[in-house]
């Protein structure tokens, strides 16, 4: 998926979790934002690619779904440790924030199983086999062109529209 779909997916999971974890509207708003940030987190590995290449163009060698930053343990292990630390130290805001950021990152990884170049290493570190649905087999700009013409792109459109509608609903509920 593109960054828009990942932000929307993280925002949606952050919204669901915020509604269950937090009654304070300001902290709930913060958790929704953290969910969106968590949704972006796995693609920050692209910064390394861009800096090392000196360009923001993605070539066919842009295969970051094979990197450790696109595996569940990379987010679940530190997220779980921070959650436990937050609970043990009675810092509910830390526990809640770590849960939401981790969930946003994990939603990103699940989204990358649909329509990406190769999928993700779902069972890493036990297997390096890539898993996914309707994989494109191409990378970089070629992937983007092919993906946006494929019916699987509609999944991202639905997720993005849902994220926008949830955000708009929250915004309008404060205006009334």
What does this structure look like?
This protein has 176 residues and is mainly alpha-helical. The chain has one domain (3-175). Helix content is 65%, strand content 0%. The protein has 7 helices and no strands. The longest helix is centred in the last third of the chain and has 23 residues, at 153-175. The protein starts with a helix and ends with a helix.
Structure class = mainly alpha
Percent in helix: 55-70%
The major sheet is characterized as: none
Q: H/E order of the elements? A: HHHHHHH
Computed CA radius of gyration, to the nearest angstrom: 17 Å
Shape: globular
Low-confidence stretches: none
Mean pLDDT: 94
As a percent range, the share of strand residues is under 5%
User: How many beta strands in the DSSP annotation?
Assistant: 0
Keywords:
globular; single chain; about 180 residues; about 65% helix
In short:
It is built from seven helices and no strands.
Write the layout of secondary structure elements.
Blueprint: H1 3-21, H2 25-40, H3 45-53, H4 72-88, H5 92-111, H6 140-149, H7 153-175
